[in-house]
Amino acid sequence: MNPITQQEINKAAWGACDTFRGVVDPSIYKDYVLTMLFLKYISDVWKDHKARYEAEYPDAPELVAAMMQQEAFALPEGAGFDALHKRRFEAGNGERIDKALHAIEEANGTKLKDVFQDISFNSNKLGDEEQKNDILRHLLEDFVKPALDLRPSRVGALDIIGGAYEYLISRFAATAGKKAGEFYTPAEVSELMARLVDPQEGDDICDPTCGSASLLMKCGRLIRERTGTKRYALFGQEAIGSTWALAKMNLFLHGEENHQVEWGDTIRNPKLRTSDDMLRHFDVVVANPPFSLDKWGTEAADTDKFARFRRGIPPKTKGDYAFILHMIETLKPGSGRMAVVVPHGVLFRGSTEGKIRQKLVEENLLAAVIGLPEKLFFGTGIPAAILVFRKRKADDSVLFIDASREFVAGTNQNVLSEANLAKIVDTHQARETVDKYAYRATKAEIAENDFNLNIPRYVDTFEEEAEIDLKAVRSERARLKDDLAELEARMEGYLRELGLA
């Protein structure tokens, strides 16, 4: 049997979406397709391992049952994909799938607690009973195709399943418009942020607005590629229930067992706390929070029990600094470092934001400001910036990088190439001024600019235009006038010949 490729699995999984197209909006059907992929995978793993144990111990069913109790996921009788597929022509597909998911959730205790509560295959979002049953029959048939036989003995490494899940999420983001930013950060931006914070073996890594957890996993992957170990822990929080569920499934499908991802509003109710009810601290904090979030929780900010807003309370209609201040408060005193995506307004808006910005610079927490190209992010064409903070810095300078003009242009989205990424990371590490690209500013220079961090104030990208030779221009103008006069005389002659003059 030829080994299955990532591309084949991706294509087959994306093909399953055809069942919904034209009937259900992608923002709705993405949850059904991704949940079905997860169910199919854990069912195929269970079936594969059980067959292997039964072949090894044909006369010891009790031993096989005991070994199956040690599986990563428990699969109750009748709750697996094959049982659902077998009954696909019967009425009640939606109810059966929901019951199976509920049974799996119950059987796996805290591991999958509440993961499926925000998804209902029996929802009227899929149409009336007849249409819904038909759609779900087609979906079950899509996932039984040979390309989506996800048994480990066939597909090998877990990464190929995680890769398919990540591929689907990125494709959904490309079609989801403004809502895409709620669950997905483009892969190359995640890669850039991971490299900027340089995660190390043993680090605790957190994303307080984790979406589908792609940014967290990029940090983990970087450590694995460098060290070959999985000695790190991933933490996150996500406010939207269905997106939190995506994150949990995504982490499991990538083999990231050592994680704690909570569901809830990070600003109003941070869930990642210590046993004595203080905010938990991390070596690395990364995030792509919602831009300028309205109604972020200002009403409770002045009585915040964690004193996150002691530098100032951000404006009620712009929550950017609420997330920044929360993230800074969760950094470990020695090793803490963070990268956060922000809209450019964060760099120069006045009032309370200006005062917060001033305090962050004066406390020597800000390490770098990096301007990105426009149209990198799904759902918005505006250019963004990355702010890098460190709890411990070698000096009080801030590095400004203008990377906004170097990218690979795309029809709908621009992307950063590996060369673009490497240049940003190398410049960030060197912390030296580079003509028309980067500038290392002292704290005094930033103070002179009233703590305005707008990148053009520091990085001069002005290109002088070539000098114009006025003599050559005059002579060319005279020649063109002569040519025009000659053409007009010739045209006059033609018109006379035709009797039209």
Shape: globular
CATH topology of the largest domain: Rossmann fold
Through-space gap between termini: 84 Å
Biggest beta sheet attributes: 9 strands, mixed
Contiguous uncertain segments of 5+ residues:
none
Number of domains: 3
Bin the helical content: 40-55%
Q: In the CATH classification, which architecture of the largest domain applies?
A: 3-Layer(aba) Sandwich
Give the tally of β-strands. Answer: 9
The H-level CATH homologous superfamily of the largest domain, spelled out, is Vaccinia Virus protein VP39
The overall pLDDT average reads 90
Strand order of the largest sheet: 3-2-1-4-5-7-6-8-9
Structural class comes to alpha/beta
> How big a fraction of the residues is strand?
5-15%
Number of helices: 17
Report the order of strands and helices.
Answer: HHHHHHHHHEHEHEEHEHHEEEHEHH
Return the CATH class of the largest domain. Answer: Alpha Beta
Q: Radius of gyration in whole Å, from Cα?
A: 29 Å
Can you walk me through this structure?
The chain has helices spanning 6-15, 26-56, 61-68, 81-86, 93-107, 129-143, 152-155, 159-175, 187-197, 214-227, 241-253, 320-329, 345-348, 351-362, 418-430, 443-448, 470-497, and strands at residues 204-207, 233-238, 259-263, 284-287, 337-343, 366-371, 384-390, 398-402, 438-441. The termini are far apart. The relative contact order is 0.08. It has 3 domains: 6-176, Ferritin (Up-down Bundle), CATH 1.20.1260.30; 187-457, Vaccinia Virus protein VP39 (Rossmann fold, 3-Layer(aba) Sandwich); 468-500. Strands 3-2-1-4-5-7-6-8-9 form a 9-stranded mixed sheet, with helices on both faces. The model has no long low-confidence stretch (mean pLDDT 90). Helices cover 43% and strands 10% of the residues. The protein is α/β, with parallel strands linked by helices. Its EC number is 2.1.1.72.
